[in-house]
Amino acid sequence: MILVVTGTGTGVGKTVVTAAVAALASGRVAVLKPVQTGVGPDEPGDLAEVARLVPGVTTRELARYPDPLAPATAARRSGRPPVPPEAAISAALELAEEHDLVLVEGAGGLLVRFDDDGGTLADVAAKLAAPVLVVAAAGLGTLNHTELTITELRRRGLTCAGVVVGAWPAEPDLAARCNLVDLPAVTGTPLLGVLPDGASRLDPAAFARLARHGLARELGGAWQTPDP
After folding, report:
1. How many angstroms separate the CA atoms of 96 and 116, rounded?
2. CATH, domain range 2-217
3. CA–CA gap between residue 63 and residue 78 (Å, rounded)
4. How far is CA 95 from CA 32, 64, 110, 111, 204, in A?
5. Which residue of 44, 61, 85, 213 has the smallest Cβ count within 10 Å?
6. For residue 18, what are the contacts with CB-CB under 8 A and spacing of at least 6?
7. 209, 223 contact by CB (below 8 A)
8. Known catalytic residues?
């Protein structure tokens, strides 16, 4: 199975959610990060975090660029070639031959461009016929951003696997608390979990326990949607 993980924007917790899904999955699991931006050649990127939190997971990164920008822009500024959607598709299919689950983590949101031809993560999901898990922010503004993302998925005929809040604050405000009920109501898509901010600082065993409590049954956990 291949599952694409996207966010409603940057900094919403995509990598932590990707790691949590990997931690609960049975069988052999691979995580593909087609493009990493904002990280130097010798610096640990998102996949280093996944590998630390989920020992034994296979990771693959196709390219990285130092500027913290959209992949197409970062590639252009670096003077190096971009990663077209076709490369990500090929890598995902190759990993799927030897793994039970392949998680493809995008950079930024669904329509962030991979290259100057306009290729996006949505194109990758479409070619792979893969469902897309949407990682959303907790607070004010997330209803609009999440609905826009899911509306675009539907417009393209793509399946949304659900929504996960990727960085739940220690002291959630009124908007965040209301969003737990409003997100599935507004988007028509199930809320499949809430992971606390700072989860990436845990050791692997504690992270696995947190993932089980923070993700819903559909993703291998025990989290339940709160009552309205």
Report:
1. 28
2. 3.40.50.300
3. 11
4. 8, 19, 22, 24, 23
5. 44
6. 5, 31, 46, 50, 103, 105
7. no
8. 33
This prediction has a pTM of 0.93
Span 195-210, pLDDT tens digits: 999 999 999 999 999 9
d(CA 150, CA 146): 6
In sequence order, what DSSP letters do the residues of 47-100 get, joined into one string? HHHHHHHSTT-EEEEEEEESSSS-HHHHHHHHTS----HHHHHHHHHHHHTT-S
Length of the chain counted residue by residue: 228
Query: C-alpha 62: how far from its chain's center?
Result: 16
Q: Helix or strand or coil: residue 226?
A: coil
For Cα atoms 71, 75, 76, give the angle at the middle one, nearest 5 degrees: 120
Percent of the chain with pLDDT over 70: 99
**133 vs 182: CA distance, rounded Å:** 18
Sign of CA dihedral 38, 24, 53, 128: negative
* Domain residue limits, the chain: 2-217
- Residue with the bigger pLDDT between 41 and 98: it is 98
Q: List, for residues 105-151, the tens digit of each pLDDT value.
A: 999 899 999 999 999 999 999 999 999 999 999 999 999 999 999 99
- Within 8 A by CB and 6+ apart from 191, the residues are 162, 163, 164, 165, 180, 183, 184, 216, 225
pLDDT tens string 5-59:
999 988 899 999 999 999 999 899 999 999 999 988 888 889 999 999 999 999 9
